[in-house]
Amino acid sequence: MKLETCNLKHFFRKYSKFLVLSFMIYVSCFMFHVSFIHAQEINLSVAPPLIKTIIKPGKTILIGYKLQNLGDPVIVTTRVAGLIPIGNNGGLRIENGPTDPILFNLDNAELKLNQPFLMKSAQQQQLLVRIKVPDQTPEGDYYYTLLNETKPSQSDSELSTSTKATIGSNILLTVTKSGKTDINGKIAFFDVVPRFKLPFFGNVFDSSDKIPVRLFIVNVGHNVITPEGTINLIGNFGEKATFNIIPKNILINSQRIMEASTSGQMTDQADSSLLLSGFFLGHYKLATTINFGPGTQTLFGQASFIAFPIKLVIVLTFVLFIVFILLKQYKKQTLP
C-alpha cells in the first residue's frame, strides 16, 4: 500500500506541469471557439393604431404613419393584408393575398411595400401610405391592416435568437358615392348570467354574488357601427347606478360584446359587459340605451334579477339547528 502511494506521488510530481498546461489549453480552446448567444429585444410601435374613414370612388388619400424601433436593430417588412371579423370579442383574422379592389402604395422614395429595410435602435421611420379607390369600386366597407413584420438579424460573430414579431394598424374604409352610410344595429342579447333561474322568480343571486351582465350588439347594416350609450341599475329601495358603454367598432356581418364601466375606460372583462359587485337585496332592474351617433336610431333593452342572502340564511339555519339540538340534549340531562 505504501509503495502504491509513493508511486502516485511520484507520478503527479513528474507530470504536474504537463497536466496544468493541458488544462489551460483546453479551457482556452473552449473559450475562443464557443459562440455567444443573446436574445434579441424587439420593441416596435406604430401610430396611429387605427384609421377609420369614408371615401368616394375615384379618390385617393395619403396617410402618414410613425414607426418607431425601441429595441435592437431589426429587419422590417411593411405590407397590407385584409381583415375578417371572428368571434364575439372583436377578434380579427388576417387574410393574406391581393387587396383588390383597393390599391395601396408607399410614397416614400426609399421604401416599398413587401420589401425589407433595416431599422436601427431608437430609429423613427415615417411611412406614407397612399390609398387609391378606383372609379368602379362597389359601395361598401373594406377592412385592412398595415403590418410591420420583423426578421431576426444575425452577425458573423454572434448567434442571435429571436422570434418573429408583427405589429399592425387597422384600416376601416367605407366607400360611398353620396357620402351616406347604412348604420343599423340591434341588441342581440341583454341579460344577467344567473346562478339560479327559478319559476316565477326569474334570475336569482345570492346577495354577496358578483353579478355578470352581458350585452351583445349585432351589425345588421352595410357599414361599420360604433355603439355608445349607458347601462342603468335601479334597485327597489331607490338606489341607482349608471355605467357608460365603451365605444367599440363592430364590423359588418358580426356581433360584439360591449363593455361598460363607471369611468368609460377599458376593463379586463373578457366574457361579460359589466360585473356588478356589492350587497344586493330584493328586486333590481337593468336598462340599456344604445345609439350609433347623432341622427341614428336608439335601441332599448331591459333585464332584471332578484337577490337574497341565501348563504347567510343557510348558515343561520345550520347554527339554529345545532343550538336546538344542544338545548334539547341539555334539557334531557337536567330533567330528573
From TrEMBL:
<feature type="transmembrane region" description="Helical">
    <location>
        <begin position="305"/>
        <end position="327"/>
    </location>
</feature>
<keyword id="KW-0472">Membrane</keyword>
<feature type="transmembrane region" description="Helical">
    <location>
        <begin position="18"/>
        <end position="39"/>
    </location>
</feature>
<keyword id="KW-1133">Transmembrane helix</keyword>
<keyword id="KW-0812">Transmembrane</keyword>
<protein>
    <recommendedName>
        <fullName>DUF916 domain-containing protein</fullName>
    </recommendedName>
</protein>
